[in-house]
Amino acid sequence: MDYIIHILIMICIYSILGVSFNLILGYTGLIAMCHAAFFGIGAYTAALFAIHFGANFLIGIVAGMVVAGVVGLLVALPALRVRDEYLIVTTLALLMIIYTVMMNWLDLTRGAAGLSGIPRPRFFGLEISTPAQFLPLMAIFGLICVLVSRRIVTSPFGRTLKALREDEVAAQALGKNIASFKIRVFIIGGALAAVAGGLLAHYTTYISPHYFTLTDTIFIFAVVIIGGAANLWGPVVGAALLVSII
Length: 246
What we know:
Elements: H1 2-24, H2 35-53, H3 57-79, H4 84-104, H5 106-109, E1 115-116, E2 122-123, E3 126-127, H6 131-153, H7 156-166, H8 168-173, H9 178-204, E4 206-207, H10 214-227, H11 234-245
Antiparallel strand pairs: 1-4, 2-3
Helix pairs in contact: 1-6, 1-9, 1-10, 1-11, 2-3, 2-4, 2-9, 3-9, 6-9, 7-9, 10-11
């Protein structure tokens, strides 16, 4: 039973990653290969806050969102100047940079050895330690991320993202600030991916750079494509299918 619950928990985590990446890829049409970097930033930030500062679980999650959002802003800057295969190469380079930092900043990340002893979340003095206790927490965070995504894509902001995907030149001709929308979608997508990272860190109590590689980005990409890009529940379906199989 614990194994089945573990699979359900991982489905929740990859659903969050898929939903966040769907905003960038599915709704905006930007092929960015650095999503695992946001995932890793969220995990390491939450873990470091918990280990070194004894920070509350939720504070670590929020801190990870802020840091990943800032990195999302940095990713968006080259995205304003390049598209398609050039954007792929640029974002892949960023992923490699983040991975290299995780591997070599030994005083902070402990390199390939990873971070262990990450505290379990506590609510009202009660520790969440078993998979059965974690599952409702993961499901709640997953549902919140889906609802946030729904709110975004049904808003005027979301409709503009779709317009950028279909015809960026036409959207710009209609007076839309293309740069602003690209920057914001990368910040939002990165911040939501960081939520999944923080959840993973506290669930496994151990993380290493090997969790956040190009392979993970490709897996997240597959979650969105198989489930259905630009479909609200598509990433959830894709995560359920791929995590169950793999």
